[in-house]
Every structure is written in structure tokens, then in C-alpha cells.
Amino acid sequence: MHLFERMREDVTTVLDRDPAARSRLEVYLCYPGLHAVWFHQINHTLWNRGWLFLARWLSEVSRLFTGIEIHPGARIGRRLFIDHGLGVVIGETAIVGDDVTLYQGVTLGGTGKEHGQRHPTIESNVVIGGGAKILGNITVGENCRIGAGSVVLRNVPPESTVVGVPGHIIFREGKRVVITDPKQINDPLSEALGAVATEVSKLQERVRQLEGSGTTEARSASFQRIMDDVDYQI
Fold this sequence. Notes:
By secondary structure, the chain is α/β, with parallel strands linked by helices. It folds into two domains: 3-176, Hexapeptide repeat proteins (UDP N-Acetylglucosamine Acyltransferase, domain 1), CATH 2.160.10.10; 182-228, no CATH class. The chain is 40% helix and 17% strand. It has six helices and 16 strands. The chain has helices at 3-17, 24-30, 32-48, 52-66, 188-211, 213-228; strands at 69-70, 75-76, 81-82, 89-90, 95-96, 101-102, 107-109, 121-122, 127-128, 133-135, 139-140, 145-146, 151-152, 160-163, 168-172, 175-176. The strands form three sheets. The protein has a seven-stranded mixed beta sheet with strand order 3-6-9-12-14-15-16. The protein has a five-stranded parallel beta sheet with strand order 1-4-7-10-13. The chain has a four-stranded parallel beta sheet with strand order 2-5-8-11, with no helix packed on it. The chain starts with a helix and ends in a 6-residue tail after the last helix.
């Protein structure tokens, strides 16, 4: 696609996704996320042609003007929309698909000093909320939603919604995720809830032994309804 056609497409994307955008002129002049993406297209071309220092230096110039840091080695698809954008960081080996939306403070980063692919792959049509951190060589599948402030350290299957620290899958393919196997509980909140559930079950059994089954059955049904609403997340 020709550079100017790509620019027009990016502007149209902003108008479609941001209700605050009132005109094309405003988008051209007042959207640093858009400017950062255009800078990156130039820098990435220079990087691929072996002009590594120049590409890296220009990426620093872009960061100075936009507040958004995109390494020139990162691979970014079409129609990326960075809303507000201040503090967004995209690492060298990150891969971003088409029609992705990032909000302010998002980090697509690494977890150490390993070499090779060390940043995440974000597939198409993903929305990542403000302040979310996607770290390491992991993949976030198509049509996912990552909640604001989440920290994602593991692969996320397509059509999922993730929230929390560490990231919990709360919806998958439009259905609420409920995991009842304690072996799959691996975050502090879920472990605490699991411990509470175990203790309540022991108390119920004790009450049953002391008072008989009639009252306890009602309590068990009530408790089960509560536990059905608790998400034990991966």
C-alpha cells in the first residue's frame, strides 16, 4: 500500500474508534499515537535496510515528541490505534497484528535478558486497556480484551477477556470461565478463595454431624450458589 493511502487509512481508523475525534484535520495534527505509528513505519524500513543506528536515533526523536516508545525492530500491522498513548512501550521483537487498540501506559515488554523472541505477539483485533503489561514471549490471541492495569505473563487463547494481577481469564468465547480443579489455581486471590471454600466445606460437614442434615442441606445449596459465582482463573 502506498504511504499516503496508509496514512489516510490510519486517520479513518481513528475517526471510527475515537468518538472524541471531530475532523480529519484534528486527527492529523493532534493525535500523537498516530504520529508515533507513522514515525515507526519510517524507522522500521530503515531498520530492515540495515540503518540500525539511524533508525534507533529517530525512534528516540519520536519518543521525545509523542511520549510513545516503539522500537524500530517491532513489527506492527495495519490500523494500529494508540489512544492518548503517553507511556506506551513496544519492544524490539514485539509483533502486533491488524486492528489492535492500545491505551496509555501499555507495555509490550520482555522479562529478562534472554535473546531471540523475547516480547509478546499480539494478534489481530485485540484491545489492551490503560496501564496493562504484556510481558515475555507469549501470544495474545485474536479478539481478546485485556483489562486496564492487568499483568499478563502467559499465553491468552483467542476470544478471551483478561483482568487482574496476574491476569485472570474471566470470559472465553463469550462464556464465563469457571475452573474448579484446585491444581489449576495459581494466583494468590484464587488460592485464598479456594482455602476459604475448603474450610467452609469442613465446617458444613461438622455441622451436619452435630445437627443433622436438614439445616445443612439448605446451607449447602446457598453456599453452592455463591461458589458458582466465583471464578477460579488460570
